[in-house]
Amino acid sequence: MGEGVEWAVHCCLTLGWLGDDQPVSTARLAAGYELPPAYLNKQLQALVRAGILTSTAGARGGFRLGRPLDKITLLDVVTAIEGPDEAFQCTEIRQRGSGAESPARSFVAPCAVSTAMRKAELAYRRALAAQTLAEVKVAAERHVPRLEDSVRRWYGRG
Amino acid sequence: MGEGVEWAVHCCLTLGWLGDDQPVSTARLAAGYELPPAYLNKQLQALVRAGILTSTAGARGGFRLGRPLDKITLLDVVTAIEGPDEAFQCTEIRQRGSGAESPARSFVAPCAVSTAMRKAELAYRRALAAQTLAEVKVAAERHVPRLEDSVRRWYGRG
Protein backbone atom coordinates (compact mmCIF):
# COMPACT_ATOMS: atom_id res chain seq x y z
CA MET A 1 0.00 0.00 0.00
CA GLY A 2 1.41 3.40 -0.96
CA GLU A 3 1.21 6.63 1.00
CA GLY A 4 -1.89 7.61 -0.98
CA VAL A 5 -4.32 6.21 1.57
CA GLU A 6 -2.72 8.13 4.44
CA TRP A 7 -2.78 11.35 2.40
CA ALA A 8 -6.33 10.81 1.18
CA VAL A 9 -7.81 10.13 4.61
CA HIS A 10 -6.05 13.14 6.13
CA CYS A 11 -7.20 15.42 3.30
CA CYS A 12 -10.81 14.26 3.77
CA LEU A 13 -10.55 15.02 7.50
CA THR A 14 -9.18 18.48 6.71
CA LEU A 15 -12.05 19.18 4.31
CA GLY A 16 -14.37 18.01 7.08
CA TRP A 17 -12.86 20.50 9.54
CA LEU A 18 -13.03 23.34 7.03
CA GLY A 19 -16.66 22.66 6.14
CA ASP A 20 -17.97 22.91 2.59
CA ASP A 21 -18.32 26.66 2.31
CA GLN A 22 -15.47 27.08 -0.15
CA PRO A 23 -13.33 24.64 -2.13
CA VAL A 24 -9.69 24.04 -1.16
CA SER A 25 -6.99 23.86 -3.84
CA THR A 26 -4.48 21.05 -4.26
CA ALA A 27 -1.72 23.55 -3.47
CA ARG A 28 -3.27 24.43 -0.11
CA LEU A 29 -4.00 20.84 0.86
CA ALA A 30 -0.45 19.87 -0.16
CA ALA A 31 1.02 22.70 1.92
CA GLY A 32 -1.24 21.74 4.83
CA TYR A 33 0.62 18.42 5.09
CA GLU A 34 3.86 19.33 3.27
CA LEU A 35 3.11 16.89 0.44
CA PRO A 36 4.18 17.00 -3.24
CA PRO A 37 1.26 18.78 -4.99
CA ALA A 38 1.36 16.88 -8.31
CA TYR A 39 1.30 13.46 -6.68
CA LEU A 40 -1.30 14.52 -4.12
CA ASN A 41 -3.46 15.81 -6.97
CA LYS A 42 -3.54 12.30 -8.47
CA GLN A 43 -4.93 10.95 -5.21
CA LEU A 44 -7.49 13.76 -4.97
CA GLN A 45 -8.64 13.07 -8.54
CA ALA A 46 -9.09 9.40 -7.64
CA LEU A 47 -11.29 10.49 -4.72
CA VAL A 48 -13.33 12.64 -7.12
CA ARG A 49 -13.81 9.69 -9.49
CA ALA A 50 -15.09 7.66 -6.53
CA GLY A 51 -17.55 10.42 -5.56
CA ILE A 52 -15.81 10.99 -2.23
CA LEU A 53 -14.81 14.53 -3.26
CA THR A 54 -16.17 16.98 -5.81
CA SER A 55 -13.92 19.37 -7.68
CA THR A 56 -14.49 22.86 -9.03
CA ALA A 57 -12.33 24.27 -11.80
CA GLY A 58 -10.96 27.82 -11.97
CA ALA A 59 -8.70 30.16 -10.05
CA ARG A 60 -10.79 29.83 -6.89
CA GLY A 61 -11.57 26.17 -7.54
CA GLY A 62 -10.54 23.13 -5.61
CA PHE A 63 -12.00 20.24 -3.65
CA ARG A 64 -14.96 19.77 -1.37
CA LEU A 65 -16.33 16.65 0.30
CA GLY A 66 -18.77 14.86 -1.99
CA ARG A 67 -20.76 13.66 1.02
CA PRO A 68 -20.55 13.95 4.82
CA LEU A 69 -17.71 12.13 6.62
CA ASP A 70 -20.20 9.77 8.27
CA LYS A 71 -21.09 8.51 4.79
CA ILE A 72 -17.47 7.80 3.83
CA THR A 73 -15.85 4.61 5.13
CA LEU A 74 -12.18 3.69 5.17
CA LEU A 75 -13.03 1.01 2.59
CA ASP A 76 -14.36 3.72 0.25
CA VAL A 77 -11.04 5.56 0.45
CA VAL A 78 -8.83 2.45 0.19
CA THR A 79 -10.80 1.22 -2.84
CA ALA A 80 -10.64 4.66 -4.49
CA ILE A 81 -6.88 4.92 -4.03
CA GLU A 82 -5.65 1.33 -4.27
CA GLY A 83 -8.27 -0.03 -6.67
CA PRO A 84 -10.80 -2.81 -6.10
CA ASP A 85 -8.45 -5.78 -6.63
CA GLU A 86 -7.69 -8.12 -3.76
CA ALA A 87 -4.07 -8.31 -2.65
CA PHE A 88 -3.93 -12.07 -3.18
CA GLN A 89 -4.21 -12.96 -6.86
CA CYS A 90 -4.80 -16.66 -7.57
CA THR A 91 -2.99 -17.75 -10.73
CA GLU A 92 -4.41 -21.30 -10.63
CA ILE A 93 -1.06 -23.05 -10.27
CA ARG A 94 -3.02 -26.01 -8.91
CA GLN A 95 -3.91 -26.86 -12.53
CA ARG A 96 -0.31 -26.96 -13.72
CA GLY A 97 2.39 -29.62 -13.53
CA SER A 98 1.22 -32.36 -11.19
CA GLY A 99 -2.30 -30.89 -11.29
CA ALA A 100 -2.57 -31.23 -15.05
CA GLU A 101 -3.46 -34.91 -14.60
CA SER A 102 -6.62 -34.20 -12.62
CA PRO A 103 -9.92 -34.13 -14.52
CA ALA A 104 -11.25 -30.68 -15.50
CA ARG A 105 -14.18 -30.99 -13.10
CA SER A 106 -11.68 -30.89 -10.22
CA PHE A 107 -11.15 -27.19 -10.90
CA VAL A 108 -14.74 -25.98 -11.07
CA ALA A 109 -14.74 -25.04 -7.39
CA PRO A 110 -12.38 -22.18 -6.47
CA CYS A 111 -8.90 -23.16 -5.28
CA ALA A 112 -8.87 -23.82 -1.53
CA VAL A 113 -5.77 -21.63 -1.12
CA SER A 114 -7.51 -18.72 -2.83
CA THR A 115 -10.69 -19.24 -0.80
CA ALA A 116 -8.72 -19.21 2.46
CA MET A 117 -6.82 -16.05 1.51
CA ARG A 118 -10.00 -14.31 0.38
CA LYS A 119 -11.64 -15.10 3.70
CA ALA A 120 -8.92 -13.09 5.44
CA GLU A 121 -9.15 -10.23 2.95
CA LEU A 122 -12.90 -10.14 3.50
CA ALA A 123 -12.28 -9.70 7.23
CA TYR A 124 -9.96 -6.79 6.38
CA ARG A 125 -12.50 -5.14 4.09
CA ARG A 126 -15.29 -5.64 6.61
CA ALA A 127 -13.19 -3.92 9.27
CA LEU A 128 -12.45 -1.03 6.89
CA ALA A 129 -16.13 -0.74 5.94
CA ALA A 130 -17.13 -0.66 9.60
CA GLN A 131 -15.20 2.57 10.24
CA THR A 132 -16.38 5.95 8.92
CA LEU A 133 -14.19 9.01 8.52
CA ALA A 134 -16.50 10.77 10.99
CA GLU A 135 -15.37 8.27 13.63
CA VAL A 136 -11.71 8.72 12.70
CA LYS A 137 -12.17 12.51 12.98
CA VAL A 138 -13.64 12.18 16.49
CA ALA A 139 -10.72 9.94 17.49
CA ALA A 140 -8.21 12.46 16.10
CA GLU A 141 -9.85 15.32 18.02
CA ARG A 142 -9.70 13.33 21.25
CA HIS A 143 -5.91 13.66 21.43
CA VAL A 144 -5.30 17.13 20.00
CA PRO A 145 -6.80 20.06 21.91
CA ARG A 146 -8.83 22.37 19.65
CA LEU A 147 -7.71 20.56 16.50
CA GLU A 148 -10.58 21.91 14.39
CA ASP A 149 -9.85 25.54 15.42
CA SER A 150 -6.18 25.05 14.70
CA VAL A 151 -6.78 23.63 11.22
CA ARG A 152 -9.34 26.32 10.35
CA ARG A 153 -6.97 29.06 11.49
CA TRP A 154 -4.09 27.64 9.42
CA TYR A 155 -6.33 27.63 6.33
CA GLY A 156 -7.42 31.22 7.05
CA ARG A 157 -10.96 30.24 8.02
CA GLY A 158 -10.66 31.85 11.45
CA MET B 1 1.20 -9.13 -2.56
CA GLY B 2 3.35 -11.11 -4.98
CA GLU B 3 2.82 -14.64 -6.23
CA GLY B 4 5.13 -15.92 -3.51
CA VAL B 5 2.34 -16.60 -1.04
CA GLU B 6 0.37 -18.69 -3.54
CA TRP B 7 3.49 -20.68 -4.45
CA ALA B 8 4.57 -21.14 -0.83
CA VAL B 9 1.19 -22.40 0.40
CA HIS B 10 0.88 -24.84 -2.51
CA CYS B 11 4.42 -26.16 -1.97
CA CYS B 12 3.69 -26.73 1.73
CA LEU B 13 0.52 -28.65 0.78
CA THR B 14 2.53 -30.77 -1.67
CA LEU B 15 5.13 -31.57 0.99
CA GLY B 16 2.21 -32.51 3.26
CA TRP B 17 0.85 -34.93 0.66
CA LEU B 18 4.26 -36.46 0.05
CA GLY B 19 4.96 -36.97 3.75
CA ASP B 20 8.37 -36.36 5.28
CA ASP B 21 10.12 -39.56 4.25
CA GLN B 22 12.44 -37.91 1.74
CA PRO B 23 13.22 -34.28 0.88
CA VAL B 24 11.95 -32.74 -2.36
CA SER B 25 14.25 -30.57 -4.47
CA THR B 26 13.45 -27.07 -5.70
CA ALA B 27 13.59 -28.42 -9.27
CA ARG B 28 10.89 -31.01 -8.55
CA LEU B 29 8.63 -28.60 -6.66
CA ALA B 30 9.05 -26.03 -9.47
CA ALA B 31 8.17 -28.65 -12.10
CA GLY B 32 5.20 -29.77 -9.98
CA TYR B 33 3.61 -26.34 -10.50
CA GLU B 34 5.50 -25.21 -13.63
CA LEU B 35 7.20 -22.37 -11.71
CA PRO B 36 10.59 -20.69 -12.32
CA PRO B 37 13.01 -22.66 -10.08
CA ALA B 38 15.33 -19.79 -9.09
CA TYR B 39 12.50 -17.52 -7.95
CA LEU B 40 10.67 -20.38 -6.24
CA ASN B 41 13.89 -21.23 -4.41
CA LYS B 42 13.93 -17.75 -2.86
CA GLN B 43 10.44 -18.34 -1.45
CA LEU B 44 11.41 -21.79 -0.16
CA GLN B 45 14.50 -20.34 1.56
CA ALA B 46 12.26 -17.73 3.22
CA LEU B 47 10.08 -20.58 4.53
CA VAL B 48 13.20 -22.29 5.89
CA ARG B 49 14.27 -19.10 7.68
CA ALA B 50 10.82 -18.99 9.28
CA GLY B 51 11.08 -22.61 10.42
CA ILE B 52 8.15 -23.68 8.23
CA LEU B 53 10.42 -25.90 6.11
CA THR B 54 13.77 -27.54 6.75
CA SER B 55 16.33 -28.01 4.01
CA THR B 56 18.96 -30.69 3.40
CA ALA B 57 21.98 -30.01 1.20
CA GLY B 58 23.43 -32.42 -1.33
CA ALA B 59 22.46 -34.25 -4.51
CA ARG B 60 19.53 -35.97 -2.81
CA GLY B 61 18.75 -32.92 -0.69
CA GLY B 62 15.74 -30.64 -0.73
CA PHE B 63 12.89 -29.50 1.47
CA ARG B 64 10.71 -31.08 4.12
CA LEU B 65 8.03 -29.58 6.34
CA GLY B 66 9.56 -28.17 9.51
CA ARG B 67 6.40 -29.02 11.45
CA PRO B 68 3.01 -30.61 10.71
CA LEU B 69 0.53 -28.65 8.56
CA ASP B 70 -1.82 -28.21 11.54
CA LYS B 71 0.95 -26.20 13.22
CA ILE B 72 1.41 -23.85 10.24
CA THR B 73 -1.07 -21.02 9.78
CA LEU B 74 -1.63 -18.84 6.73
CA LEU B 75 -0.25 -15.96 8.80
CA ASP B 76 3.00 -17.89 9.30
CA VAL B 77 3.39 -18.24 5.52
CA VAL B 78 2.35 -14.66 4.66
CA THR B 79 4.75 -13.26 7.28
CA ALA B 80 7.59 -15.49 6.05
CA ILE B 81 7.11 -14.44 2.42
CA GLU B 82 5.91 -10.84 2.66
CA GLY B 83 7.70 -9.81 5.83
CA PRO B 84 6.20 -8.65 9.13
CA ASP B 85 5.46 -5.05 8.13
CA GLU B 86 1.87 -3.84 7.97
CA ALA B 87 0.63 -2.69 4.57
CA PHE B 88 -0.33 0.75 5.91
CA GLN B 89 2.72 2.74 6.92
CA CYS B 90 1.98 5.90 8.91
CA THR B 91 4.41 8.69 8.00
CA GLU B 92 3.01 11.11 10.61
CA ILE B 93 1.87 13.74 8.13
CA ARG B 94 -0.43 15.00 10.90
CA GLN B 95 2.62 16.70 12.44
CA ARG B 96 3.52 18.62 9.29
CA GLY B 97 2.20 21.83 7.76
CA SER B 98 -0.97 22.82 9.60
CA GLY B 99 -0.16 20.28 12.31
CA ALA B 100 3.20 21.84 13.12
CA GLU B 101 1.41 24.44 15.25
CA SER B 102 -0.01 21.89 17.67
CA PRO B 103 1.89 21.26 20.90
CA ALA B 104 4.18 18.20 20.95
CA ARG B 105 1.97 16.42 23.49
CA SER B 106 -0.75 16.25 20.83
CA PHE B 107 1.27 13.59 19.05
CA VAL B 108 2.05 11.25 21.92
CA ALA B 109 -0.99 9.08 21.15
CA PRO B 110 -0.83 7.24 17.80
CA CYS B 111 -2.44 8.98 14.84
CA ALA B 112 -6.16 8.16 14.62
CA VAL B 113 -5.83 7.34 10.91
CA SER B 114 -3.06 4.85 11.63
CA THR B 115 -5.02 3.32 14.53
CA ALA B 116 -8.08 2.84 12.32
CA MET B 117 -6.07 1.25 9.51
CA ARG B 118 -4.23 -1.02 11.93
CA LYS B 119 -7.53 -2.21 13.36
CA ALA B 120 -8.46 -3.51 9.91
CA GLU B 121 -5.06 -5.09 9.34
CA LEU B 122 -5.38 -6.80 12.71
CA ALA B 123 -8.68 -8.33 11.55
CA TYR B 124 -6.86 -9.58 8.43
CA ARG B 125 -4.02 -11.09 10.42
CA ARG B 126 -6.41 -12.69 12.89
CA ALA B 127 -8.30 -14.32 10.01
CA LEU B 128 -5.01 -15.59 8.54
CA ALA B 129 -3.88 -16.89 11.92
CA ALA B 130 -7.19 -18.71 12.40
CA GLN B 131 -6.61 -20.93 9.36
CA THR B 132 -4.04 -23.76 9.36
CA LEU B 133 -2.59 -25.35 6.24
CA ALA B 134 -4.09 -28.66 7.44
CA GLU B 135 -7.54 -27.08 7.03
CA VAL B 136 -6.65 -25.71 3.59
CA LYS B 137 -5.42 -29.19 2.58
CA VAL B 138 -8.72 -30.78 3.66
CA ALA B 139 -10.64 -28.14 1.68
CA ALA B 140 -8.48 -28.79 -1.41
CA GLU B 141 -9.08 -32.55 -1.16
CA ARG B 142 -12.83 -32.02 -0.96
CA HIS B 143 -13.02 -30.91 -4.60
CA VAL B 144 -10.38 -33.05 -6.26
CA PRO B 145 -10.96 -36.83 -6.16
CA ARG B 146 -7.89 -38.75 -4.91
CA LEU B 147 -5.75 -35.60 -4.91
CA GLU B 148 -3.16 -37.04 -2.52
CA ASP B 149 -2.73 -40.22 -4.64
CA SER B 150 -2.42 -38.13 -7.76
CA VAL B 151 0.27 -35.87 -6.30
CA ARG B 152 2.21 -38.82 -4.83
CA ARG B 153 2.12 -40.64 -8.15
CA TRP B 154 3.37 -37.56 -10.05
CA TYR B 155 6.31 -37.28 -7.62
CA GLY B 156 7.05 -40.99 -8.03
CA ARG B 157 5.93 -41.87 -4.50
CA GLY B 158 3.34 -44.34 -5.79
Automatic annotation (TrEMBL), chains A, B:
SUPFAM superfamilies listed in its UniProt record? Winged helix' DNA-binding domain
- A Pfam family found in this protein is Rrf2
State the Gene Ontology terms under molecular function: DNA-binding transcription factor activity
Q: Where does the record locate the signal sequence feature? A: none
One Gene Ontology cellular component annotation? Answer: cytosol
Q: What is this protein called?
A: Rrf2 family protein
Taxonomic placement: Bacteria, Bacillati, Actinomycetota, Actinomycetes, Streptosporangiales
